[in-house]
Amino acid sequence: MADRKASLVLEPGAMIRPVIDHEGVKLLVERLYGISVLELTELAGYDDKNYRITEDPNVKNPLIVNHSPHGYVLKIMNSMDSQNLSVVEAQNEIMNFLITRSVRCPRPVRNIFGHLHSVETLSGRQHAVRLLEYVPGELLKDVPSSDALFYQLGEFIANLDNKLQNFNHSGLAGREHIWMLTKVPDLEKFKYVIKDAEKLDLAEEVIEEFKYAVVPRLDELEKGVIHGDVNEMNIIVERKPGGR
């Protein structure tokens, strides 16, 4: 079991991003979701590939009952995370869980087989594929910053994490991922990418301090499901009447 867990933690230099072109994406969407693509735009992604899909309104498909007014996002997960399908299931359930609790986030769409995800082979590797309803708005990085906006962001994240205290899923119980805070000691093998000596010293100091002060007490610390990657590229904003 330990060996399997170790294999699911990112190693330096590993190539895990999906390899697919736009034509391949169109064929995938049509085959899995019955959607004829009118417009296709690749969105930013780190390890995964994400595409905004606008469907052709002239092609009527009886398999699509509820049409998303703003289009969809096709998310093709990297080959490493795709090995743990229970995490994919947990992510889908988290989105549906939050939507029913008045948190605006993407809604997973069922494919023609009635499933919220499927596993597809692309360039010889297996990837979990999902379709999500597109949430309109602007990335936080692209709007003017203000104290009020940052306050509202803090409010939103606190509300999100408070609601997630009531969320449990077996797929998250034993999950290990390089982005988790518990994995800070593993960052030592990635520090070769830091060329600036001062920044390297700082990184080494933080890692050593974490190993000394935090690791021995990990079992005493509270754990739970949170949004672990809140940043200006991961938050969508839209101005409401009244300035909120």
Automatic annotation (TrEMBL):
InterPro entries: Aminoglycoside_PTrfase (IPR002575), Kinase-like_dom_sf (IPR011009), Pseudomonas-type_ThrB (IPR050249). Coiled coil: none annotated. Keywords: Cytoplasm, Kinase, Transferase. It is found in: Cytoplasm. Pfam families: APH. Its main location: cytoplasm. It catalyses: (5R)-5-hydroxy-L-lysine + GTP = (5R)-5-phosphooxy-L-lysine + GDP + H(+). Its EC number is 2.7.1.81. Residues 46-240 form the Aminoglycoside phosphotransferase domain. Belongs to the aminoglycoside phosphotransferase family. Catalyzes the GTP-dependent phosphorylation of 5-hydroxy-L-lysine. PANTHER family: AMINOGLYCOSIDE PHOSPHOTRANSFERASE DOMAIN-CONTAINING PROTEIN-RELATED, HYDROXYLYSINE KINASE. This is Hydroxylysine kinase.
